[in-house]
DNA sequence: CTGTCGAATGTGAACGATCACATGCGCCGC
DNA sequence: GCGGCGCATGTGATCGTTCACATTCGACAG
């Protein structure tokens, strides 16, 4: 009782209390099969009594793995990356892994390399790179081999396993929805072209139009920001042939709605607007925004699954899984007036 | 050249190559003063030649510190917590620390305790708890002592050092701005009352009104969501005596603007609206939103500073620093029509 | 000349777990 | 009846660093 020298219990203390060897305690901790039921109970009781917690550092040193996953994240507060990180953390925690995060200010080769370096130094078991930029694709190729790594939202044709939401399919969903409402064609306000997702959404938009035999209007370039959506809106608002606009994300759609409103064009009566992401605010814009939802939790889960398969030796069963997006129809899209 | 067995270099390899003992290498790595200049150079050269990286696990085991900081974060995609996390990561990286993150689904006592447990198990040097909820304050009190810990946005009167943005001052800024424009009084749509920040904003609102000798109208309860702002808007829109509304965050202000618009009340001509947070979208709402900006980077920096002071033995110089917020005036606020 | 001190460096033992291998023992098959 | 196999458990080495203490050597004061 009073002998306790304020020191945390280690495995040998547990062994002594349970009357077994330290190795038996280790076996119990790691669920080794050949431990007698009764012995296991005795050990577990001792563990509880001493409030013993295995030291992760020692574990990592002795064993091969740290049960830590490093995440290289782009230094941004955008909804997508943040949601992906959260989804990954949740999945990892359930699987008994911890998350070590490094945020990058710039997603260039040096930055990514240094971040991965930093993480391997910490003996992470694997790395997830949230790399939505084109520049990241190059950086990812020059990674030190030997570290199990999974890439998110990038370079789906590359050597590394990757997980991503099917942006092309998402964009097609949006465009097909608008065409089905009766619009002759759909305009597009794009994201920045150094983002892979932005390119894929452009591709999906174009594919859907071409598949339907529609004219493909010129693309309006944007950069994810509400401002770019606003400016695009001012550009398009006075054209009577613009009846439907697909914005590359919800923030841009927000700016677009504002510009239309200012120019006296009503949504969806005059112009239908569809966004992408389904940010929490989307349902509360005026009007509530029709958009494409991405399942970031699923992305996180699949990242972890791929990583675990990588740990087990072989490559993952599916090297480049694509998570299907879904369309959320709200009030910002409707039939054109002529229809 | 060909003898290299694909094994990473360890400290003894460096020692051998440099012709010194492993301990001397260790001294060089840790900037111990008593190493001859020439010896230091020789060691550093060997380090570079072998591309040696000290193993963080071994370091953590042998030494006392892991250079890791654990972050307990509430499982949310809200702008504030996400920005705080990012600011903290940046500050930590500059100081040579890494971030270990645990996201909580529920911010109750058991959750916080388990998260901190999980982190101490990983031998983190210290813990930052992003705990904006009242329930967290209780949980934080029952923390195992001995782990240096700093709390964010919570319980500024508690035993643990805390860092937070001065919410009361922020709310006063907003209200004083509206009163200065000539409004008789200011209504408030609150955040959820189990959030400390929400309570502080209510306090600031009330203080500012009382200080100015204004009538304090009943508070409208909300929950951060755009929906709650929208509903509050429908409630207030048909009251002619409502000319100025201070919303507890920007999302609520967004919903408020939509409701006003639907009810045919214009902002700011009929009703002025002010938000809180300055989310990236705020500048692009219709109209652009006047709001209170919080400096989350500064919060991150101060958290780290407090933690480092805690490591050095003594408590931090300032136990409960409050980061001042600032008012960002945009188009959603203006003088009342009568003025 | 000698004793003491501090700077520079080395030696071996931690740190707290796992791994590789050894041991004892009951059971089965020939 | 006995060799061998598999289960349950124990023993010592090992992971890669830092810590505690020992050693060497030159400088300097008494």
From TrEMBL, chains A, B:
Residues 9-63 form the HTH lacI-type domain. It comes from the Bacteria. Coiled coil: none annotated. One of its GO terms (molecular function) is DNA-binding transcription factor activity. Gene3D superfamilies: 3.40.50.2300, lambda repressor-like DNA-binding domains. Keywords: DNA-binding, Transcription, Transcription regulation. Pfam families: LacI, Peripla_BP_3. PANTHER family: HTH-TYPE TRANSCRIPTIONAL REGULATOR GALS (PTHR30146:SF109), LACI-RELATED TRANSCRIPTIONAL REPRESSOR (PTHR30146). This is LacI family transcriptional regulator. The lineage of its organism: Bacteria, Bacillati, Actinomycetota, Actinomycetes, Micromonosporales.
């Amino acid at each position: 009782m009073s002998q306790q020298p304020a020191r945390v219990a280690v495995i040998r203390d547990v062994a002594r209390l349970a009357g077994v060897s330290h190795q038996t305690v280790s076996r119990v901790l790691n669920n080794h099969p050949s431990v007698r039921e009764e012995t296991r109970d005795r050990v577990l009781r001792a563990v509880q009594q001493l409030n013993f917690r295995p030291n992760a550092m020692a574990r990592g040193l002795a064993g091969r793995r740290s049960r830590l996953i490093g995440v290289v994240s782009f230094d941004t507060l955008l909804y997508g990356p943040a949601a992906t990180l959260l989804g990954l953390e949740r999945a990892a925690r359930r699987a008994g892994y911890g998350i070590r995060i490094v945020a990058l200010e710039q997603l260039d080769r040096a930055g990514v390399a240094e971040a991965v370096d930093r993480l391997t130094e910490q003996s992470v078991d694997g790395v997830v790179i949230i790399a939505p930029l084109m520049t990241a694709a190059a950086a990812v190729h020059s990674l030190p081999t030997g570290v199990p790594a999974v890439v998110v939202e990038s370079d789906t044709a590359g050597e590394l396993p990757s997980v991503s939401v099917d942006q092309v399919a998402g964009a097609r969903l949006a465009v097909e929805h608008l065409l089905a409402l009766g619009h002759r064609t759909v305009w597009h306000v794009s994201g920045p072209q150094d983002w892979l997702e932005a390119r894929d959404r452009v591709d999906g938009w174009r594919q859907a139009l071409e598949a339907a035999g529609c004219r493909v209007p010129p693309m309006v370039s944007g950069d994810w920001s509400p401002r770019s959506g606003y400016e695009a809106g001012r550009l398009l608002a006075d054209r009577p042939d613009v009846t439907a606009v697909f914005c590359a994300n919800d923030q841009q759609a927000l700016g677009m709605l504002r510009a239309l409103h200012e120019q006296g064009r009503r949504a969806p009566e005059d112009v239908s607007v569809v966004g992408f992401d389904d940010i929490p605010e989307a349902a509360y814009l005026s009007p509530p925004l029709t958009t494409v939802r991405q399942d970031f939790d699923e992305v996180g889960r699949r990242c972890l699954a791929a990583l675990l398969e990588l740990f087990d030796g072989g490559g993952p069963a599916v090297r480049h899984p694509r998570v299907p997006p879904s369309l959320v129809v709200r009030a910002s899209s409707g039939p054109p007036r002529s229809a």
